[in-house]
Amino acid sequence: MEIRTVALIGLGALGITFGQRLNACLPRGNFLVIADKTRADRYRRTGVRANGELCDFVYADPAEGKPVDLVIVATKSLALESAMDQMAAFVGPDTVLLSLINGITSEEILETRWPGQALLCVALKTDATRVGQDVTFTAPGVLQIGERDGSASPRLAAVETLLHKARIACEVYPDMVYRQWNKLMVNVGLNQVTAVYDVPYGGVYAPGEAHQVMLAAMREVVAVSQKAGVCLRPDAPEQWIDATAGTFDPEAMPSMRQDTLAHRLTEKELFSGTICRLGRQYGVPTPVNDRLYNELCRIEQSWQ
C-alpha cells in the first residue's frame, strides 16, 4: 500500500505546520486543503505562511471531492462534526483517517461514520503559534501513530513512509491508547493552566502557584486513568516536566492560551470536561479540574 493522495481539513497551527511539508513532498494536486469557496478565496487573498514561507496549497471544494488515500483532520474539536460533513466526499472505503485533534475522543467520533478507518495519533513537541493564517514555530513537531489494537498493518506502514518522505518526525507505537492518555494529561495541566493563569510556557515551568496547579490537574488524570484501565505511571507528571524543561520557548504558548487571547472558544470539553465526566463515572474526585473547567467557562462568558 502507498499513500499517493492526501486531503487536509483545518488550517490552524498544526494543519499549517504539517501541511506545509506534506504539500512540498507530493506532486502538485496530490495534496489538497478542503475549503469552501469563501474560505479558499480568503486564504488565497491573505496568504497562508509557515515561518514566513508562503504555502502554495491547492484548495478543494467539499462538494467536488473525490476519495483520497489519506484524510488528515486538523480542525478544532468544536468543528469536528462540521468537518466530517465537508470531508465526506474525500473518504472512500479504503481511505485512512488521521486526526491531529487533542484528547481521546476524536477517533471514536470519526468512526461513528467511517468504522475502522482511523489510526490513533498524537501530535507532540511543537510550539507552533498562529496569528491569522501565519504560523511560526521553532519546534517542528512529532507525530506518534499506531493501530488501536497495536498491530503492524500495511496502512500504518504506508502513513509512516509518507511522513518520513515529508520530513515529519514520526514514531510508531503499539500502545497508542496509553500515549493518547499521556498527552491528555499534558493538555489538562499545561494548556488549561496557561489559559486560566494567563501565562506562557515559562509561567508554568517556574516554581509557583501555576506550576503546582498544573501538577495537581495532571495527577487527577493519572488517578482517573487507573480506573479506566490505562494506568498512567504515578510519576508521569514529574517525568514529563523533567523531560521537557527547557525545550519550549518560555515566551511561547500552547493552543488554549492562544484561543483565550483571541477570544475563541476553548477545547475545555476535551480536557477538564473529559476528566470531570470520567471522574464522576469512576468515583474519582477531580476538584482541580472542576475549578479549571469553571474558570474557563467564566473566561469565555466574559467575552459576550
Task: Give a quick rundown of the structure.
Helices cover 46% and strands 18% of the residues. Strand 7, helix 4 and strand 8 form a beta-alpha-beta unit.
CATH class of the largest domain: Alpha Beta
Unreliable parts: none
Instruction: Provide the β-strand percentage band.
Output: 15-25%
The CATH architecture of the largest domain would be 3-Layer(aba) Sandwich
Number of H- or I-type helical stretches:
12
First-last Cα distance: 50 Å
CATH superfamily of the largest domain: NAD(P)-binding Rossmann-like Domain
Strand segment tally: 12
| Helix and strand sequence | EHEHEEEEHEHEEEEHEHHHHHHH
Q: How would you sum up the major sheet?
A: 8 strands, mixed
